[in-house]
């Protein structure tokens, strides 16, 4: 071979590389030109590797709100480790995501913990958008959450509220303080268990197990775990095994509980096919129609436990705390209820609540200041899309900071004041509702992934709160004043007050 031929042979691969590089660079220049026409949302300054991770405190909704205000960004792009995240903090951008482009943002991001603990995930709340989610959501709305079903649980609600009142009456008789946070949680736990499996877990002590399991799983599902920010770490051999093993241990505990529950129902159905109309029986009876595997059933039950217990309990706990902090609001609510219940009845029934406008305003105001899911459940973009003049790329998670929007002085008068009057009698927010059409107020979300349990939650919260306030007057324990009530929060898939609420009941009726 001659020298020029040898050179040619050596240079040929190099030439190919140069051609390939210039083609790639040309494509990147074209993409950048397109992006200049169409900017990504602004980002605050970031650190290498960590991105904006160091700016997230123990309460991400609060840190993200502070960050948005500091930089004036209603829509911002953050990098949490290796994970791009869009944060929405204005009603206009929220409307674009949840209404205008709902079909693009109606999915959920993948997370390892949801994959392991939620069986796929195959539950409603964390499933990606698609046929499986559609089917399971239909099952939920038809067999658990329809208006007819919610009405059919009325007797159970009234009986469970009655049991709480008996417990508080005993405390009132001895002048003992009641741990309201715990009591409200037990009530929600028992009521949901009764709806789901026809009886509470109380007698067998399984209710404590359920509560502990929810408390242990909730922070994991909140979506702020290291392996989500650095997914490549979770793929590394040993580390992947450690992370997965941690989640599998949690799932094993759920398996033990749920397998036993389903098995008990299966053997009951076999001995008496007509026995039982609780939700586990319903799941077993529609198993074929919805093509449910056992894992699907367990995932759906997890949905009910996570969505149904802590959310309403957290809102009620905050409502009671706010009422104690504001005696004039408490007095006004008591006057409304005590004048609408027939004399001698001794308790509030659902029929007495038809005109309870102030009660509804109190619950709305609690949901505004203390939404149980302050960042909703993360949404996920299935395609790139224009929001508020910015390009949102495909495949990013989107957090909607409803906590921040509910406290924004641009949309609310005296936003930090607990003032139920704003919602009624020509108040500044008259007509503003949480049904997903007023985008400054989204405690239940909006659009296709909006909470399906709104009516069930309201019926339960209204009845318990009305009875607590109607039957008793409430005082702080000796040595404590109303200003001692601490509203600090703890973060999880549901946010709740950190401190327990200890109150002394005085019997009114
Ligand atoms: C005060 C009580 C409640 C609050 C504040 C609440 C709030 C929420 C929120 C914020 C979401 C996410 C919406 C989104 O990502 O856009 C959600 C989803 C959901 N909620 Fe609720 N919820 C409550 C009670 C309930 C109850 C009692 C149930 C039924 C047992 C329920 C069932 C669901 C389900 C199934 C989803 C998932 C919807 C989906 O992804 O398609 N919720 N809820």
How is this structure best described in words?
The protein is an alpha+beta fold. 54% of the residues lie in helices and 8% in strands. It contains 19 helices and eleven strands. α8 packs parallel to α19 (454-471) and α10 packs antiparallel against α13. The longest helix has 35 residues, at 3-37. It is globular and about 65 Å long. The N and C termini lie far apart (109 Å). The structure holds protoporphyrin IX containing FE. GO terms for molecular function: heme binding; iron ion binding; monooxygenase activity; oxidoreductase activity, acting on paired donors, with incorporation or reduction of molecular oxygen. Keywords: Heme, Iron, Membrane, Metal-binding, Monooxygenase, Oxidoreductase, Transmembrane, Transmembrane helix. Its cofactor is heme.
In short:
One of its GO terms (molecular function) is iron ion binding. With 509 residues, this protein is an alpha+beta fold.
- SSE series: HHEEHHHHHHEHHHHHHHHHEEEEHHEEEE
Bound molecules: protoporphyrin IX containing FE
Give the tally of β-strands.
11
Q: Overall mean pLDDT score?
A: 90
Total count of helical runs of at least 4 residues: 19
Q: Quick one: overall form?
A: globular
Low-confidence stretches: none
Helix content: 40-55%
Q: State the oligomer.
A: single chain
Distance between the termini: 109 Å
Structural class: alpha+beta
For the sheet with most strands, the description reads: 4 strands, mixed
Q: Give, in spatial order, the strands making up the sheet with the most strands.
A: 1-2-7-4
GO molecular function, one term: heme binding
Cofactor: heme
InterPro entries: Cyt_P450 (IPR001128), Cyt_P450_E_grp-I (IPR002401), Cyt_P450_sf (IPR036396)
Subcellular location: Membrane
């Amino acid at each position: 071979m001659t020298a020029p031929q040898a050179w040619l042979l050596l240079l040929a691969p190099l030439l190919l590389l140069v051609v390939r590089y210039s083609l790639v660079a040309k494509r990147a220049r074209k993409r950048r030109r397109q992006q200049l026409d169409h900017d990504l949302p602004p980002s605050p300054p970031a650190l290498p590797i960590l991105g904006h991770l160091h700016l997230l405190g123990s309460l991400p909704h609060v840190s993200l709100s502070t960050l948005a205000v500091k930089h004036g960004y209603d829509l911002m792009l953050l990098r949490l480790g290796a994970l791009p995240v869009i944060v929405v903090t204005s009603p206009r951008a929220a409307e674009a995501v949840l209404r205008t482009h709902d079909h693009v943002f109606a999915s959920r991001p993948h997370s390892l913990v949801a994959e392991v603990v939620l069986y796929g995930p195959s539950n409603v709340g964390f499933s990606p958008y698609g046929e499986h989610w559609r089917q399971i959501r239909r099952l939920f709305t038809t067999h658990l959450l329809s208006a007819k079903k919610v009405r059919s649980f009325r007797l159970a609600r009234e009986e469970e509220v009655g049991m709480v009142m008996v417990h508080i009456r005993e405390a009132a008789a001895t002048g003992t303080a009641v741990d309201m946070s715990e009591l409200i949680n037990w009530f929600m736990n028992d009521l949901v268990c009764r709806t789901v499996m026809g009886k509470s877990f109380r007698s067998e002590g399984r209710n404590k197990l359920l509560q502990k399991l929810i408390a242990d799983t909730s922070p994991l599902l909140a979506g702020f775990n290291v392996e989500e920010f650095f997914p490549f770490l979770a793929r590394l051999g040993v580390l992947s095994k450690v992370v997965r093993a941690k989640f599998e241990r949690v799932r094993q505990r759920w398996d033990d509980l749920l397998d036993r529950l389903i098995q008990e129902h299966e053997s009951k159905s076999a001995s008496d096919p007509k026995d039982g109309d609780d939700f586990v029986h319903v799941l077993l009876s529609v198993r074929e129609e919805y093509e449910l595997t056992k894992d699907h059933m367990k995932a759906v039950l997890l949905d009910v436990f996570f969505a149904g217990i802590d959310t309403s309990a957290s809102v009620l706990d905050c409502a009671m705390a706010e009422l104690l902090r504001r005696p004039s609001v408490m007095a006004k609510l008591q006057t409304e209820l005590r004048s609408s219940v027939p004399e001698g009845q001794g308790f509030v029934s659902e029929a007495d609540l038809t005109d309870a406008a102030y009660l509804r305003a109190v619950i709305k105001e609690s949901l505004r200041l203390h939404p149980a899911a302050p960042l909703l459940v993360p949404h996920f973009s299935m395609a790139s899309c224009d929001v508020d003049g910015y390009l949102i790329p495909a495949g990013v998670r989107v957090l909607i900071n409803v906590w921040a929007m509910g406290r924004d002085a641009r949309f609310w008068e005296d936003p930090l004041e607990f003032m139920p009057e704003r919602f009624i009698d020509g108040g500044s927010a008259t007509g503003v509702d949480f049904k997903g059409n007023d985008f400054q107020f989204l405690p239940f979300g909006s659009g296709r992934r909006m909470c399906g349990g709104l009516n069930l939650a309201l019926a339960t919260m209204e009845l318990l709160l009305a009875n607590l306030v109607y039957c008793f007057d409430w005082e702080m324990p000796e040595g404590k004043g109303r200003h001692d009530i601490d509203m600090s929060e703890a973060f999880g898939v549901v946010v709740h007050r950190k401190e327990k609420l200890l109150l002394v009941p005085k019997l009114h009726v």
